């Protein structure tokens, strides 16, 4: 009996041995990104890619505080850890010029992926280098923008509405201007609500990475701050430190001084969301990616939360966040990585991406008739994405960012010097950096 | 006749030599003692060269170039002493050096005073002194990352125990006790945490010093009718001084390069109020990516610490020889 089975067992063993190299060949891609809610949504979404192609997805997610340090180090050392990377919008210049990302123009042309199908601001912000030229280094992956959330339930209380109207002469609602925003923040500062002391607003003040710069630029754009002379690139005198920009910075400091919770001297995305979730603040400045999570929150979500885009002043802008997805040029699995991008660009995948909590940049998704009604925060997101402006995306962006972090934190939080001195100093720092770069 | 331990060792060596196969004996005999010594220390030396000496010389080389780690394709140019000139003329760097000096001075002063006082008390050998010694030593056994994080919560104006305690004692509202957000208080907040964590370490070294003083010296002083005060200043302090100086040296070097705790507590803020030299260096090297300039800054710091430590060690040796 056993003798009968021996040839069969032998054949099975041979087949198993022969199939081993095949199994070893099965590919695995590593995707690098920040550790945050949308990353979890991407893990879920990517299961469809694995089902469809048989390519396993591995994820390397790093907290925001060390995201830039970790992955810029990886790229600069030409590491092979990441096959795909969702890099910050400001990295695109350096990554393109230093050869970290694969240029995607030929691939897009071959696969019929058109950048015209994506929201224009995200194409400029996440994909193009040099800006406003058809040179693409990433596919817009995660649209994001700084906006605001507010405690709708507090705003709607009759006694609060009555008191507010009596004090300021207008109906309490989501603010349209910065004056209104500050009045609301002052009104709620140190107010007792449900037996608890609450505060006006949570704004970005973080020093270590990019926090305070994102918050300050978000406000300064509206007051007239510009990075450079539109007619003469890198000419910053009178633009970075214009009288309007100085007023904008003074406003930001006044908002920090009057209306933020105690100890809010190092606040970025997580701390701001925590302040809102714990019921400390009436309003919160934060990137739109936090909105789905806040909307789902049992204590402050649902009917209790409202969303509004950046208020307007002389101009109406908002700080762009978000990222594009790129193929790392040092990866040995370039073809599989490109296959992922091709899959990710498909409209049905993008629609699912939005449903799971990611912010799609595909026009077919965001311009769809039901999009605005699909989520309570969708209108504010759409309106905000239409007015975005971004920080420098130059190869020297890291130095430009550090200079601004220092100058504005010294003024806004530490109270050193004046707004004019801070912006004059910033203009000087940036000019020096561009001189070293040979751009001036 | 007695047999000395050495003769036992010689005999054992002889037995071992006889038992060793002839071929191996020949091979080992071919190596000199010096060669065998080198054989043993070579792995350590190679490791040291690879992870200490090579990076040091590489940093020295980089400090004379315009190299930027985030521009791997850019041409690396030699810039002579430009990086050193920029570092030494940069007012921000001098401010960070002053911040470091303020931090080092106050932490060492407080840790030495409190550490010595605690060691003096523990040395009395009262009932339960072993328990109290263990309890006092706990903070230094914790990871700086853990300490930084939980002190950040303790300092929280709204929920922190520290703010609550100060408010309870002084009547100041907790919302006004902003240790980490205030320009005036933030440097002291860090000094308090470092002192809390590392005073036990200073205490331990001082305790070793106090326990090394022979009792007969005190007995002789008693015979000479020296007062307790006189004994303290003429016996205890001079004899424990080399240990105290050693503790100061260790803590001085450690605090000169303090990074983790400051980074976790304040990140150098508010503004640049608590930006010690190591934070500036990290920002320059890994955030602004000015690798050449930050290498020059690192060398300047290295020379400063090395020079000061050398002068200090000479003073320490002089005290020991007295």
UniProtKB/TrEMBL annotation, chain A:
GO terms for cellular component: periplasmic space. Pfam families: SBP_bac_8 (PF13416). Coiled coil: none annotated. Keywords: Periplasm, Signal, Transport. The keyword Transport applies. The keyword Signal applies. Gene3D superfamilies: Periplasmic binding protein-like II. It is found in: Periplasm. It comes from the Bacteria. SUPFAM superfamilies: Periplasmic binding protein-like II. Its main location: periplasm. Residues 1-26 form the signal peptide. PANTHER family: ABC TRANSPORTER PERIPLASMIC-BINDING PROTEIN YCJN-RELATED, ARABINOSE-BINDING PROTEIN-RELATED. Belongs to the bacterial solute-binding protein 1 family. This is Carbohydrate ABC transporter substrate-binding protein (CUT1 family). It comes from Ancylobacter aquaticus.
TrEMBL record, chain B:
GO terms for cellular component: plasma membrane. GO terms for biological process: transmembrane transport. It holds the Pfam family BPD_transp_1. It is found in: Cell membrane. Its main location: membrane. PROSITE patterns: ABC_TM1 (PS50928). InterPro entries: MalF_N, MetI-like, MetI-like_sf, Sugar_ABC_transporter. PANTHER family: GLUCOSE IMPORT SYSTEM PERMEASE PROTEIN GLCT, TREHALOSE TRANSPORT SYSTEM PERMEASE PROTEIN SUGA. Belongs to the binding-protein-dependent transport system permease family. This is Carbohydrate ABC transporter membrane protein 1 (CUT1 family). It comes from Ancylobacter aquaticus.
